[in-house]
Amino acid sequence: MSFIEILKAIAFGIVEGFTEWLPISSTAHMMVLDEFVRLDATPEFKTLFMTVIQFGAVMALIVIYFRKLNPFDGRKKPEQRSATWKLWLKIAIATLPAAVLGFLLDDWIEENMYTGLVVSITLILYGAAFIVFEYLHRYTRPEITRLGRIDYQTALYIGFFQVLALIPGTSRSGATILGAMILGCSRGIAAEFSFFLAIPVVFGAGFLRIVKYESALSSNELILMIVGAVTAFIVAVYSVKFMLGWIKKNSYTLFGYYRIGIGTVILIWFIISGLINA
After folding, report:
1. pTM to 2 decimal places
2. Which label site among 73, 78, 93, 185 has the fewest CB atoms less than 10 Å from its CB?
3. How many whole angstroms separate alpha carbon 122 and alpha carbon 117?
4. Please, is 146 exposed, middle or buried when counting C-beta atoms within 10 Å of its C-beta (0-12, 13-18, 19+)?
């Protein structure tokens, strides 16, 4: 394993850590990076690598929110521990739709949907959706301004929005944040609940990929995954804090324009690449 491959793993970790928690699709950015910074590895390992380094980004979230998510914290009052258990139940309910459909459609999506055309279109569509939503609701006060006010039915509906994120380029956080705001959540609460939904989703997807591709993993490749995951963890700590700080003072409109811009660039790039390779 060369030093160059380690640098590539670090590059992927940086992109994953920064984009995982922003509503701009980490998958799309990883695909673009892969066009220019190609790991010297099999397609099976690259699929596993892209999934597993998400663990690092999720661990950053767990560290930041550990006390809030820990129902066993002895410093919490009984009602606070009860509220934490209820939060986890809502997370579980919201995870079910994507977990079931993701399990059933994982192979088909991997074979048919990971294309430049699909990713660029979903980036542009959801970018426009963010802009339109923010414009139409610029004077609307959200009904749900605390996590505890998200009821079980709302959690399930947010889970249905998360199903949309099975399509590459949609962005899991983008779909759930937009869905939560449509359902009456404030920007901050929509972001936090979206963050928490990532924990079972990422670990579940990672487990499926590990089971599927564990035979493709060598000791050198394991090192690359560890390097990528650690890098993603470090960068994600700052990414989460940036996101939470941003939405306290700003809307998601800028992310919408960014999605449209990067989606257009990806679409043009893949059209030109297709013509060159034709």
Report:
1. 0.89
2. 78
3. 9
4. exposed
